[in-house]
Amino acid sequence: MAASVTSTLSTLPTPSSTAPRATHDARWVRWTLTTIALLFLGFFLVLPLVAVFAEALRHGLRAYLASFSDPDALASIKLTLLTAAIAVPANLVFGISAAWLIAKFNFRGKSVLTTLIDLPFAVSPVISGLIYVLVFGLQGWFGGWLIEHNLKVIFAVPGIVLATTFVTFPIIARELIPLMQAQGSDEEYAAITLGANGWQTFWRVTLPNIKWGLLYGVILCNARAMGEFGAVSVVSGHIRGETNTMPLHVEILYNEYNFVAAFAVASLLALLAIVTLVLKSLVEWRHARSRA
Amino acid sequence: MSSVRAPRSILPGFGLSLGFTLTYLSLIVLIPLAAAFIKTAGMSWADFVSAVASPRVLASYRLSFGASLAAGLVNAAFGLLVAWVLVRYSFPGRRVVDALVDLPFALPTAVAGIALTAIYAKNGWVGQWLEPAGIKVAYTQLGVFVALTFIGLPFVVRTLQPVLQELEPELEEASACLGANRWQTITRVILPELLPALLTGFALAFARALGEYGSVVFISGNMPMRTEITPLLIMTKLEQYDYHGATAIAVVLLIASFSTLLLINLLQKWSRRFHRV
């Protein structure tokens, strides 16, 4: 009770003041609004998440674990990991290149380029798959050429990787561009003036500055890459054990009324989502602290 | 692109990053997207109209646009509330709730789809209470709306949060000093400040909902004329090897999405001007 004297400049409401400040909401308003918001989120977010695990464990832990001994399920996990392992690094290199270009230089058409990078976000997943069918499919632009050379893109792994790359295309670039723009180029100018070459400047000055944003982008990109459904569904051909990613395998099992197995595979993807959210919060927290 | 001049900067890498960025962008995005428009340009006008304006396709537009609009509006209202509560109030577990808002971004759409179906089916956690009241959600248009609301939830919250955080408390203090009550301050001072961000968030949620596929197909039941969304119709045409029909509908959907994107860009320009004044 010693700290009864509070600075008049302090904007924090003191616990002792009973009269509500004009710029703060009354207690019952706070309570009501918070309750409604939490109920809405609980209903729309928490319930579906819990339902995945509840349905997966409906017939006990043994039935749950048995779902993963299915070789097709394992193949789908492998394919999903492979797809993300190609699509994420490809978009990472692109994201860095695009952010360097847009944040460090002024040139005509820059705003058009920024808008074009965002385009895949505005395209329906189904259309993202369709456009690759039009280019590489049997009747597509390169369809004949691909058959002559005995190559398969559509209904095969390359198509799945391409569609995934398209869907996750802007994610890393969108994280890096505003970050690098906000940081400016002063440190890079200093490095160059002191005799560093371009790559040294990038590795020792730029990269340490953007590492949290970069990590953040990679985490989000990876989650989307592993979970993409619509686009991959169009180009995959649904061949069990060969071109089925995890989300597609969930669909097949679900449509066969094999609900426990479907939700078991889905629970892995839900875990991935939870891990993504945790990592994302940690990165945000570290980033906020490193700036403070 | 020949009009691009090398800028006067001592930083290296302009040519390399420009070359790589444009090549990658063209190969992955621009050329495949152009394929859809070129394919459609090869159709006769009559074929195009019969593909994009048949009764079944029109019914799918009505559902897709209507449900996306409704979901966007619900998200605008509740997103504003959630953002306000997260920024202005403190309560135990606030950071967990804040992180959870991004769940629809992180949870694969197919997983969201089967989970929502399980909840709202007639023996599900919520469905068993709604069904006796005569409300059917799973396999109806209401189900489409529920899935699209789930998908669009983070957009409004995430566009509003930074704006709310930057809102100067002096504005509210001035308003209170000048004799406004809390309700007047909120409706006449705070809401107008938030409007551009609110509209942007709504447009983003709407655009996302328009193209959404994975979370909807499980809960909608996919009945032609009634619960068939436009992206599903594209999928159906593709499975029937009707590439022209699928592409024509895709072009209509793309034009709608790009118009929304353009609108969002204009909104953001407007809001920047709004904030500078």
Describe this structure in words.
- The complex is a heterodimer of chains A (292) and B (277).
- Helix content of chain A is 73%, strand content 0%.
- With 292 residues, chain A is an all-alpha fold.
- In chain A, helix 3 packs antiparallel against helix 9.
- Chain A starts with 26 loop residues before the first helix and ends with a helix.
- Chain B is globular, with a radius of gyration of 23 Å.
- The two termini of chain B are 35 Å apart.
- Chain B has a single domain (64-276), classed as MetI-like fold.
- Chain B contains 13 helices and no strands.
- Chain B has 277 residues and is mostly helical.
- At the A-B interface, helix 1, helix 3, helix 4, helix 5 and helix 7 of A face helix 1, helix 3, helix 4, helix 5 and helix 6 of B.
> Shape of chain A, please?
globular
- Give helix and strand order of chain B, one letter per element, not per position: HHHHHHHHHHHHH
**Mean pLDDT of chain B, nearest integer?**
90
Structural class of chain A: mainly alpha
Total count of strands of chain B: 0
User: Helix segment count of chain A?
Assistant: 12
Task: State mean pLDDT of chain A (0 to 100 scale).
Answer: 89
The portion of residues forming beta strands of chain A comes to under 5%
Helical stretch tally of chain B = 13
Overall 3D form of chain B: globular
**Oligomer description:** heterodimer
Care to count the β-strands of chain A?
0
The residue fraction in helices of chain A comes out at: over 70%
| CATH-defined fold name of chain B | MetI-like fold
What's the alpha carbon Rg of chain B, rounded to whole Å? 23 Å
Measured by residues with Cβ under 8 Å of the partner chain's Cβ, the largest interface is: A-B, 102 and 95 residues
Are there runs of chain A of 5+ residues with pLDDT below 50, and where? 1-19
Name given to the CATH homologous superfamily of chain B: MetI-like
Biggest sheet details of chain B? none
CATH class of chain B: Mainly Alpha
